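How a chain folds remains the central question behind the approach discussed here. This step matters because it turns folding into a mapping between discrete strings. The sequence in question and its structure tokens are set out directly beneath this paragraph.
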Amino acid sequence: MEYKLAKESWDIKEYESLKRVIDSNMFTMGSEVSSCEKKFAAWNGSKYSIMVNSGSSANLLMVAALMYHSDESLRLKSGDEVIVPAVSWSTTYYPLYQYGLKLKFVDIDIDTLNYSLKDLESAISTKTACIMCVNLLGNPNDFDAINRIIKDSDIFIIEDNCESLGASIDDRKSGTFGVMGTYSSYFSHHISSIEGGFVVTNDEELYHIMLSLRSHGWTRSLPLENKVTGVKSKNDFEESFKFVLPGYNLRPIEFMGALASDQLDKLDNFVQVRQENAKLFLEICKSYEFIKVQKTLGESSWFGFSIICINKAHEKRHQVIDIFKDHGIETRPIVSGNFTKNEVIKYFDYEIHGTLDNAKMLDKSGFFIGNHHLNMSEEFEVLTLALDSVEKSLNRHINKDGASHE
């Protein structure tokens, strides 16, 4: 059998919802999206939720909103320093560059794959305005520790939680520890609306700013009394094309709202099954000394399974991946690996704090395999066979070199 990165999570309910939208003859953003936003906010324990067309757009909208807040303590300006982890997805970083912010790359902890708290603390400077916390592969950051680090400063937190929907610490959902948090509902993520994303916040002004920015920067989407214009005209014609912020078109369509709403009904069960799969995965991996897996904090939603080659497998990732491929197991890098290796950063205003040793190790020796919302006993049988084959191959190599006789 094949061990794929992701599996389809729809059933008849989603296809019925697609038909309902088709029958309504309303496809652009409307009541389905609005209903889904309310449902997502309630599920997440947030006051406000706004849906967009992707998790990448959610990050863009989140960063953009911070440029226009009336409160200086929650406003970014061009040139401000934002701390980011060295391991994340590209569109964690791009909105910061696009708004003229300075990125400071900080190393990860090789166990959790989130921030190295020691490096994070030493990276903070008088220029630091914000910390972008990325909850990697379903695993929340240590927000208690991060808040202790910044408690005597004006630094605030935002979260890229696109890989960690459903994760929590002490019954508080990840994505809600900062002033805003983002999520993705792309096909391979915890829920799937084909494409799609969300931003949540408890700040009403940020919410109103995002309502405008999401739709061209116009006033039409704002409530009559709002935190952007104060009170807008009751004349619909007058407000039709009145632009107050330099916005975008990041709107989702009704299909996305309907699908995400259906998937939210199943999310708690999806996460529970992923956590049960993780227990089996961790039990299997305990038998192999040549791999290292992610250490979790709180209740991870286990986006997938990271593997870092260590000991006798160190610097032999290519060999491990080839064997996995031969067994039908799909692999990918752990997110982007060490992002600072990418040529695109030549366009950034950035600084690298320290030597990023852990990010480099992950980049050189790590890879990722999938987790699903379904029981994976059969996939784990394949994984065990593959790991046994890797071990045999590594032992043959050692014996051939005469370095050991295991």
Remarks:
- The longest strand covers residues 128-134.
